[in-house]
Amino acid sequence: IMGVRHKEYVIEGVQYHPESILTEEGRLQIKNFLYMQGGTWAENERLQKEAKSNAQPAKTNGQIKDKQTNILEKIFARRKELIAAQKEIPSQRPIDLQAAYDLDLSPPLISFPDRLKQSPYQLSLMAEIKRASPSKGIISISTCAPAQARIYALAGASTISVLTEPDWFKGSIDDLKAVRQALAGMPNRPAVLRKEFVFDEYQILEARLAGADTVLLIVKMLETETLHRLYKYSQSLGMEPLVEVNNEEEMKIAVDMGSKVIGVNNRNLTNFEVDLETTSRLMSLVPKETVVCALSGIAGPQDVVPYQKNGVGAVLVGEALMRAKDTAQFISELLGGSVKSTQKESKKTPMVKICGTRSPEAAKAAVEAGADFIGIILVKGRKRCVSTETALEISKVIHETPRAGSDAASNDEPLPVSATNYFDHTTSHKLLHPRHALLVGVFQNQPLSYILEQQKLLDLDIVQLHGSEPIEWASLIPVPVIRAFHPGDAGLATRGYHALPLVDSGAGGSGEQVDLTQVQELLQKDSGLRIMLAGGLNPSNVKQVFGGLASNMSQIAILDVSSGVEENGEQSLSKIREFVTAVKAGS
User: Fold this and answer.
1) Does position 21 have pLDDT exceeding 80, yes or no?
2) Domain 94-342 sits in which CATH superfamily?
3) Phi and psi at residue 506, in whole multiples of 5°?
4) Which CATH architecture has domain 351-585?
5) Where is the N-(5'phosphoribosyl) anthranilate isomerase (PRAI) domain (predicted)?
6) Quick check: 164 and 131 in contact, CB under 8 A?
7) Which residue has better confidence, 161 or 44?
8) How far apart are CA 495 and CA 315, in angstroms?
9) How far is it, in rounded angstroms, from Cα 348 to Cα 556?
């Protein structure tokens, strides 16, 4: 290791060999850089001393009697030190956070108490992302927080608890941001809880900007006046806090404050002893309208049964979930439900899109054959581009011709109480009409104003973007958007924008066959992904596609054909019928 340090100014540099950061003190060396403050070494020394002097032991409600500093006090003091330093960093100062909040940059909220009352199980689940703990040490250090959050959500969790304390629990506020992004666009998504040792409004505002729907307030570690102040501040940001208690005195404080959600920690934070009966003993002190959550120590179904009998509303589970080999199966066994009942797997064959349609006759034949989507090219200069007059005729035919063999009754099915996959939702609820096929207008690198104009003029049901248009355009177009990608393109699986990605081999209608191996690799990486598949499809190779993607065919929502149903450059009505029949037959 080679280093350089300026004599007067706070400038220090270290050149690492690749393996140096893996040494025992590598992390400490990096932290030393992060803690530097001021412009000179003299200022740095003064500011460091001030930060340490501000990190006093926790003031509490008088429940902690040990003479020795317990773990709660240690964590509290450390958090005060780090938050004090963080507040001095430009872009992270309180005024910076407030300015961002005033610009309405915080993600949309959902009601934490209301979401807790929605569950596919008798008890709601608060599923925790927990890499480590003071009592158990490392639990699962390599866990990817957003990936774990999606697993929890689709398994029926009502809340995702994200630990953001870095030293003892190995979490961060970045975990919370990533979790919130992973849940974006998910119908009936879980609430997001910032599980943290909160003592300052700064942490609550930071949580809100990161995407939290609620924060944890621990009665044991806060003076009553501070607790009330933080509780009201959290409510002012739209977040109903989870108020944690451990005994009768703390429960009385929480109830008197008007807490709507109270968590009873079965673990005594002073000595870390776990008593699973703590929650049940305190239930008689809680108003009926208050949601009570059992926190800590829950490892299996036998721990949950007493809570189901005593009127507990939710359980928080962390370590047991993090160690589970099959998370969804563990949750269903823990809470007495069924994985299949919370998430239905689609058994339907793919829907069909006939693209490059150039006549009302071909459009009508396709709809009567059972096609679900009729595509028209609106890119000037392309050989399949249609005139405005023809496009209007096709639009009229599609919207007046009854859809053959419609099974769109599923369109009216109520949404489940648990979260659902974004692309399953868009496929079932945004890309179906109960009476007629949908008209798709295909555009490529054209102005947004032109797309909006054509959508309105032609009464397009769907807009398909086949160029380098920004993904965000999907939010600006008033109908669902299908966007073309090649396998491996960035943004393909982004949730919350395009209703479905189109995976194609190249320019639309080229006849170039898509690489099924690449498609399968893409689908296997993301089980929640659904796609429209195009590229060299025709009536003869549909069976090959079903065989090549056998284990992933449920992820193919639509098969899209253009040149594969043409003869001598013109659409063949017989080939259109053959293609639709082959797809609907599943071979």
Assistant:
1) no
2) Aldolase class I (3.20.20.70)
3) -170, -140
4) Alpha-Beta Barrel (3.20)
5) 417-581
6) no
7) 161
8) 29
9) 10
- What are the domain boundaries of the chain? 2-81, 94-342, 351-585
**What DSSP designation does 205 have?**
H
Give me 60's structure tokens.
């509490």
d(CA 213, CA 108): 9
pLDDT greater than 90 at residue 14: no
CA distance 353 to 374: 6
Hey, is 463 helix, strand or coil?
strand
**Residues 78-96, mean pLDDT to the nearest whole number:** 96
Residue with tokens 């050989």: 383
Q: Name which of 534, 527, 529, 488 is nearest 510 in CA terms.
A: 534
Reduced to 3 states, what is the DSSP secondary structure of residue 80? helix
Distance (Å, whole) CA 20 – CA 92: 30
Report whether 458 contacts 439 (CB < 8 A): yes
Q: Name the residue with tokens 């721990």.
A: 303
Phi and psi at residue 361, in whole multiples of 5°? -65, -45
> Does 509 or 444 have the greater pLDDT score?
444
For residue 19, what pLDDT is reported? 56
Query: CA-CA-CA-CA torsion for 494, 498, 500, 501, nearest 10 degrees?
Result: -60
Distance CA 246, CA 179 (A): 28
pLDDT at 552: 92
pLDDT at 365: 96
Contacts of 226 by beta carbon, 8 Å cutoff, 6+ apart: 59, 199
Could you give phi then psi for residue 372, rounded to 5 degrees? Answer: -95, -25
Look at residues 434, 433, 431, 468 and name the one whose alpha carbon lies nearest to residue 448. Answer: 468
Of the pLDDT bands very low, low, confident and very high (cuts 50, 70, 90), residue 25 is: low
What are the C-alpha distances in Å from 345 to residues 173, 254, 289, 521, 553? 34, 43, 36, 20, 12
Q: Are 242 and 193 in contact (CB under 8 A)?
A: yes
The Cα–Cα gap between 399 and 439 comes to 8
The DSSP letter of residue 36 is -
Rounded Cα gap, residues 420 and 423, in angstroms: 9
Q: What is the pLDDT of residue 508?
A: 54
Tell me what pLDDT residue 277 has: 83
Q: Which 3 state secondary structure label does DSSP give 267? A: strand
Q: For residue range 497-517, what is the model confidence (pLDDT) as tens digits?
A: 999 999 987 655 556 788 899
- Select from 247, 260, 274, 268 the least CA-distant residue to 313: 260
Question: Residue 69 has what pLDDT?
Answer: 53
> Do 94-342 and 351-585 agree at the fold level?
yes
Q: Which helix (H) or strand (E) holds 452?
A: helix 448-458
